[in-house]
Design brief:
The chain has helices at about 20-25, 30-40, 60-65, 80-85, 125-135; strands at about 50, 70-75, 95-100, 110-115, 135-145. It is globular. The protein has a five-stranded parallel sheet with strand order 3-2-1-4-5. Helix content is about 30%, strand content about 20%. It starts with 19 loop residues before the first helix and ends with a strand. Strand 2 (about 70-75), helix 4 and strand 3 form a beta-alpha-beta unit. It is built from five helices and five strands.
Length: about 150
């Protein structure tokens, strides 16, 4: 599984730049995902949240306003991580990793993977990795088109 590679499209992505309009008015999927998290976990029980495929960090930026917990953002592209570092520089509870998520270790209370699943050639490998990273009673929220 560790040999699985996935490609990001930073060069063509609308998330290659931070858009102030998008930040001011959170996307529906961000608001809906926050609601799903709170429907499944008590705020005080969430010790950490991991966003796989965090891109420029806009989702973590949104969540950081609502949760006082540790955030880990993971993306395979250094351009996305650089932008996320700029956006999230004022938060000391955010760790950003330029890493292949298949090399990620740890346990997380909440894992989000929004719009990233379609970049993987085999969804079952991604699902197995996410399950392995969940803490007991952890919650995973995965959004995207599954082929």
């Amino acid at each position: 599984m560790k040999k699985t590679k996935y490609l990001t499209s930073y060069k063509y992505s609308p998330y290659a730049k931070i858009n102030k309009k998008r930040i001011k008015k959170a996307k529906f999927i961000y608001r809906f995902t926050k609601k799903l998290i709170l429907n499944n976990k008590k705020k005080e029980d969430i010790k950490n949240i991991c966003d796989l495929g965090c891109a420029n960090g806009e989702f973590i930026f949104y969540l950081a306003k609502h949760f006082k917990t540790k955030f880990i953002g993971v993306d395979n592209d250094k351009g996305f991580i650089r932008n996320a570092e700029k956006l999230l520089s004022k938060y000391d509870n955010v760790q950003l990793l330029k890493k292949n998520l298949f090399n990620l270790k740890g346990k997380f209370d909440v894992i989000t993977c929004l719009g990233t699943a379609t970049t993987f050639p085999f969804i079952n490998e991604l699902m197995h990795k996410i399950i392995s990273l969940l803490s007991p009673q952890g919650v995973a929220i995965i959004d995207g088109i599954f082929n």
